[in-house]
Write a structure and sequence with these properties.
Shape: globular
Number of helices: 19
Strand order of the largest sheet: 1-6-5-2-3-4
Helix content: 40-55%
Number of strands: 15
Largest sheet: 6 strands, mixed
Structural class: alpha/beta
Radius of gyration: 24 Å
Distance between the termini: 56 Å
């Protein structure tokens, strides 16, 4: 099976510009390709996972990745998938976030001996002269075509700032610059970036007269309900172990819906397709085994063998009624207590197991909460300092989500 055929079989490809050219390019290992990552936070998250896995696969077959950090584009903000303008960040914040990205990407991509490059578009975008850009690049873009792009259409009713309107031009300029300076002939991105990627390809054609720049979009990682994966009640699932512990990361994948486990195995792991095809016939308890394989493989990829083993052992111990030392935890301070106690509702919110008191009430009413092995049925249940000291309280939500709360 060729690399392209495997990408198709794993459900990774959404759209391509010229399929025959793309096939030849990546199957022969001739692609120098880039994917952009705007450093809008100090850690990559599960939303970046697809791109990182694809870059890794491509590199293993001889293609050369360029990880492009958006130090320049992050100062504008990508309007794709956003109902409001992104928060403006200082250059210092952007640089800090970019530095964090570099460390995490090195777990997926081999940057040694020029096998891959890590660049920052601030190095060229921030040097551009505005009038020169308007004359040289702006003249190549039709406003009518830009407004038809999905990334802009969904913002027109709420208001699209002129700042964000320039994002497509900036991303297109990146492809144009990388093509000239680094021989980059291929751009990958999320399916919501298609219009921006076509803009870069067209800019290369119009300015350089070249027809060999191609683009491919990656299937977005959605669950069976059509929602983006990688979100929990407490927020995003991060790749930084200080933001999402290896145990929490493992548990996220261990707890995916039955309808999503096979898709995730295909798209995110190196488990052979033949083995996954066999798993598609599994049911009930066997599906739990498939989820363990998924969680272990992804935790190993992000955090290493040792952390994956620890997370799996801790999860199995909890499910079998054994130890629970490695479960996620929250430490409260005395200020979190009222008259030396904390209510079960406030406890659930503090632990990130409910987004609000209203959601916490619903969980308790439905019988979905236990504390130290005892089901909580009273909405006014409360716990004092003595119960929170030492090993603290172990809260379970549903059958699979555990959290320890202690008092500092």
């Amino acid at each position: 099976m060729t690399l392209y055929d495997e990408l198709v079989a794993r459900g990774l490809i959404a759209q391509v510009t010229d399929e025959e050219k793309v096939k030849e390019m990546i199957n022969s290992g001739k692609a120098t390709f880039y994917i952009g990552f705007d450093p809008t936070a100090d850690s990559l998250h599960v939303g970046h996972f697809m791109a990182l896995c694809l870059m890794r696969r491509m590199q293993q077959h001889g293609n050369r990745p360029i990880a492009l950090l958006g130090g320049g584009t992050a100062m504008i903000g990508d309007p794709s998938g956003k109902s409001d303008m992104r928060k403006m960040m200082t250059p210092e914040m952007i640089q800090h976030n970019a530095d964090c990205f570099k460390v995490q990407m090195s777990r997926f991509i081999d940057f040694s001996d020029g096998k891959a490059l890590m660049l920052n578009n601030a190095d060229w975008l921030l040097k551009l002269n505005y009038v020169d850009l308007l004359r040289e690049v702006g003249a190549c873009f039709s406003v009518n075509n830009m407004l038809r792009a999905e990334c802009y259409k969904q913002r027109m009713e709420r208001g699209l700032s002129f700042l964000e309107f320039n994002y497509m031009i900036m991303q297109s300029y990146d492809f144009y610059h990388l093509y000239q300076e680094y021989g980059c002939n291929f751009q990958f991105g999320g399916d919501d970036q298609w219009s921006n990627m076509l803009g870069g390809r067209e800019l290369i054609r119009r300015k350089l007269g070249k027809e060999d720049a191609e683009a491919m979009t990656i299937t977005l990682l959605l669950n069976s309900e059509g929602q983006k994966m990688g979100k929990t009640v407490s927020g995003a699932v991060w790749l930084d172990p200080n933001k999402t512990s290896p145990y929490e990361f493992y548990q996220y994948w261990r707890n995916v819906d039955d309808a999503d486990v096979i898709k995730c195995l295909k798209m995110l792991t190196d488990v052979p397709l033949e083995q996954i095809a066999e798993m598609e016939t599994w049911k009930d308890s066997q599906l739990n085994q498939a989820k363990e394989i998924l969680a272990y493989e992804l935790t190993k990829l992000v955090h290493g063998d040792e952390e994956a083993e620890k997370a799996q052992s801790a999860a199995r111990a909890i499910f079998s009624g054994g130890g629970n030392g490695d479960m996620p935890s929250t430490t409260l301070s005395a200020e979190d207590l009222t008259d030396g106690k904390i209510s079960v509702l406030k406890l659930l919110v503090a632990a990130g197991m409910a987004a609000s008191n209203g959601e916490a009430k619903r969980l308790v009413k439905q019988g979905g909460v236990t504390v130290n092995g005892e089901k909580v049925s009273a909405l006014d249940a409360a716990y004092d300092e003595a119960q929170l000291t030492g090993d603290g309280l172990v809260i379970r939500k549903g059958k699979k989500i555990f959290h320890r709360v202690t008092l500092a």
